[in-house]
Design brief:
By secondary structure, this protein is mostly helical. 54% of the residues lie in helices and 7% in strands. The radius of gyration is 18 Å and the shape is globular. The chain starts with 12 loop residues before the first helix and ends in an 11-residue tail after the last helix.
């Protein structure tokens, strides 16, 4: 799995790592038992400090998404945390209202929102689309 870090993003780098890993788990691109890249390897790939990756992994482990097995590596947990379904539905409904309000204020219609949701679903389940190279003239 390829992680993409944006240093100019308002979200701290360790949170960007956490978000991308949880999205990959939610979208099924990372499954229970899958091995994650080591702290050192990932920090080298992303050209960031190893402690930044460690912080992301430590927080994901505390949340119950990943587990470290001494001498073997870090893996997606076999049993993922089960959220409070009633609370999650309320949060999703609130987010949906906010999304629709933003879309309507921007002059977009419901079909545009559905297209955006379908694109987001593809990114979660298939991974982000690779940046397209511009053709030289």
């Amino acid at each position: 799995m390829q992680l993409l870090i944006n240093p100019s993003d308002e979200l701290p780098i360790y949170r960007q790592i956490m978000r991308q890993i949880t999205e990959a788990i939610a979208g099924g691109r990372l499954k229970s038992g899958d091995k994650l890249t080591s702290h050192r390897e990932l920090s080298e790939q992303l050209v960031i400090a190893p402690l930044t990756v460690k912080k992301a992994y430590d927080e994901l482990e505390a949340l119950g998404f990943i587990e470290t097995q001494r001498g073997r590596g870090t893996f997606v947990c076999a049993t993922l945390p089960q959220p409070n379904l009633e609370k999650q539905i309320g949060q999703i409904q609130a987010a949906a209202r906010k999304l629709l309000s933003q879309a309507y204020l921007a002059g977009l219609g419901f079909p545009d929102v559905v297209k955006a949701l379908e694109q987001a679903d593809r990114e979660l389940t298939e991974g982000p689309a690779a940046p397209q190279e511009k053709e030289s003239v």
